[in-house]
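Quick one before lunch.
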Amino acid sequence: MKIGIVCYPTFGGSGVVATELGKALSAKGHEIHFITYSQPTRLDFFSENLFYHEVDIKSYPLFEHAPYELALASKMVNVVKYEGLDLLHVHYAIPHASAAYMAKQILKKQGINIPVVTTLHGTDITLVGKDPSYEPVVTFSINESDGVTAVSEDLKKDTFLHFDIHTHIEVIPNFIDLNRFKKQKKEHFKKAICPMDEKLLVHTSNFRKVKRVEDVIRVFFEVRKVIPAKLLLVGDGPERDKMERLCRQLGTCEDIRFLGKLEAVEEVLSVADLFLMPSEKESFGLAALEAMACEVPLLTSNVGGIPELNINGETGFLCEVGNIAEMTEKALFILDGKNLPNFKKNALARAKMFDVSAILPKYEVFYAKTIENSLLASNI
Ligand code: GMT
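Model of the GMT complex:
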């Protein structure tokens, strides 16, 4: 198949999933065309089946905000037309689903039928999408997509709850490439960070409010009172400065390191003992899956799609959002020498269920079904 993939080419989970999906599909012989406003972060190599089309967003003194959606729709029209695409797969509803709808209508006038698959990732539904300033367009463009997928059952449920949706939503969970995300021998790194064999706690995120990084630091602070431990914080974002101030206020700076945006996050995960994801909302929790693949147990909140990933008492624990005392108690239980090996083993076993080889065929089947239905429905 010739597939166009539209996504945010940044460090966010939806962009990572979209890029990894495109890479995996291309490795299976599909021709993949990425249509994004800059080169996706994980697309930094050559492959004969991978193409990149940059969306050129022209500005003009009149525009306070350059019209990204129009530039994207125009680019989609051209790529579909000149590359002969079979399908457009857009990740994150805003504004990709509505831009795809516009491209589809333009192409229809030219006698071309292009099926559109929209994948919902989370905040496009649970935070931004349901805001009245976007809701009507999000509802419309989801309903008008030829196929819709969500990354968890919980996100599917939320979509039906917040929007007037009368189309099927297929749940296809996120996935992981276990060839890349696996425990590597990085003892020298562990020794450098934890010279006294301290336990190593890790958190990775985009440091947005919804991630509750403050809870990570507070749990660490409590754990640190009981056992020797270190904390690595990977990523960057709006809350980072505030978090650095909190570390200073608690006097824990010596045991906490902010690593910033890191491409090879699997190297850090390889030496971690516990991964923390205390998010307020999380439709899937891709970062937690990456940790499990590296044999790291999870301490997470019990919201959104996380319980579909983290099995309470097996791969880690699910806790109430913001309950620092509960999280501390559970963290100490996992980190106990007699419990830790079992949690690590279970985490890896669970991650294997989300290997790319198991999830990719679900997308291929869904694409084929969507193309077939769309052909039947179109008069072209
Ligand atoms: O978590 C974010 O703020 C980024 C966001 C995105 O769209 O990049 O992540 C969402 O999509 C990821 C990939 O499907 C999911 O793993 C995350 O759980 C989801 N984030 C939220 O629901 C908050």
